[in-house]
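Sorry to interrupt, but I need a hand with the structure work. It will help me judge whether the discrete encoding reads sensibly. Write everything out right here, beneath this request:
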Amino acid sequence: MLYAPPGRVPVMQGSVARVVPRVRSSIRARAEPRDNDEGDVIERFVSKLFGKQALQDQSPGGLARLDNPEMYYAPVDKFAEPLPSDTGDIRHYRQLLADTQLEKTPLVKVFDTEVDGWGMDAFGKRLYTLGATLVVVKLVSGEVVGGYNPSGWIGLGEDRNSMAAFLFCWPNGKVQERPIKLAKRGGAALSVLDYVEKGICFAPDGLACMKPGNPKVARSKLGPYYDVMPGGAKTLFNDGKKQADVERIMCYCSADGPETYELDGIVWKTGRG
């Protein structure tokens, strides 16, 4: 009797037995696409698993889609065009918002220290639940600095994490010119600290201002959480110091009003209207 390992068969050649690989008798045919298929493989899989309505949901099951630009670091060399509804300085601030959720959304100024004062209580009443926020800080020296918070403030004492957060500055204060944008570093963590006692705080030390007890002083240390300046400086401020006096702070949000919160399973989903 002739023996052969699995997958091979013995073959006699004269009086000598030789073991050769087994040849499969079946050939796998390539599936042809069907006329009634819609979308690519991933879309068909999601449609079968969750239903076609999941393809229309921008955050199915509380998960953000990968084509959402705010899933990535903010582009520092790309600028948005003003909208027809933009007036005054908003036309200039708009350029900061390329590839953000606010890029095509009319903006309104919701907080201004000249009107609302320098307290975090007033800040909270005006800002909480309004979602993505652009913070503009005018310094006594004439510089304009600030930051973009994609998650907004809600006042629950937590970190607001997003890779799309960024800082910016106009060193000469001329907002009609192109700003310098500084992207987040090290992933989404600690992009904004939403704690009343810390004031307006982008990362532990990226840009902080309006801290209770000393609201008219801004501090900046770049590098650990946000990119350094193009020349390598590790502060937003012209003189290289990590502290500057603040003249005015303004915050801009979507004109669509506050976000709504809906519990979807174990995930809170946000929306508007």
In short: The radius of gyration is 28 Å. Confidence is low (pLDDT under 50) at residues 19-37. Residues 41-50 form the longest helix (10 residues).
